Amino acid sequence: MKTCFKCGAEKPLTEFYKHKQMSDGYLNKCKSCKKEYQKGHRLENVEYYRSFDKQRQKNRDRQKAIQVRALQWRKRNPDKYKAHTAVGNAVRDGRLVKGPCQVCGDQSVHAHHEDYTKPLDVVWLCPKHHSEKHSK
After folding, report:
1. What pLDDT does residue 9 have?
2. Which pLDDT belongs to residue 136?
3. How far is residue 78's CA from residue 87's CA, in Å, rounded to a whole number?
4. Within 13 A of 110's CA, how many CA atoms are on the CB side?
5. Exposed e or buried b for every residue in 12-26, given b needs 16+ CB within 10 A?
6. Beta pairing partners, 113
7. Phi, psi of 23 (to 5 degrees)
8. pLDDT tens digits for range 10-40
9. What is the pTM of this model?
10. pLDDT (0 to 100) of residue 79
11. What pLDDT, in 10s, does the model give residues 65-104?
12. What pLDDT was estimated at residue 77?
């Protein structure tokens, strides 16, 4: 057990990030406090993090890791991959036209599949409502 210096709560060590330079090997701020701080810090320094992320994206090891994860996802989800590809091709070729979000009318939309075996049978949802649909 360890006490977070930020919120004062006593929590198990699994709730703290490892940190070699600390005497007990764990950061003095719990994970939830650290995440809250980091989120605020990132918002306060948007330009710095944009340039940092762009530079990090150019790293060859990072690009390779992204490719490996993408291939793994494709192997685990062949039906989803085929459906996503079919929608992209149909939109590009004009066989499928994007419509507004069916919930709020927003024009920035994603294609939501109720059934991946019917790749062109989609519902257009904005990112917010698409995320909500998948979280149910």
Report:
1. 97
2. 78
3. 14
4. 14
5. eeebbeeeeeeeeeb
6. 122
7. -60, -35
8. 999 999 999 999 999 999 999 999 999 999 9
9. 0.64
10. 96
11. 999 999 999 999 999 999 999 999 999 999 999 999 999 9
12. 96
Q: Is 9 left (phi over 0), alpha (psi -120 to 50) or beta?
A: beta
- Residues forming a β-bridge with 125: 110
Q: Please, how many CA atoms are within 13 Å of residue 48, restricted to the half-sphere of its CB?
A: 5
For every residue of the chain, which 3-state class applies, written as one string? CEECCCCCCEECHHHEEECCCCCCCEEEEEHHHHHHHHHHHHHHCHHHHHHHHHHHHCCHHHHHHHHHHHHHHHHHCHHHHHHHHHHHHHHHHCCCCCCCCCCCCCCCCEEEECCCCCCCCEEEECHHHHHHHHHC
Which amino acid appears at position 121 of this protein? D
Place of tokens 């059934």: 115
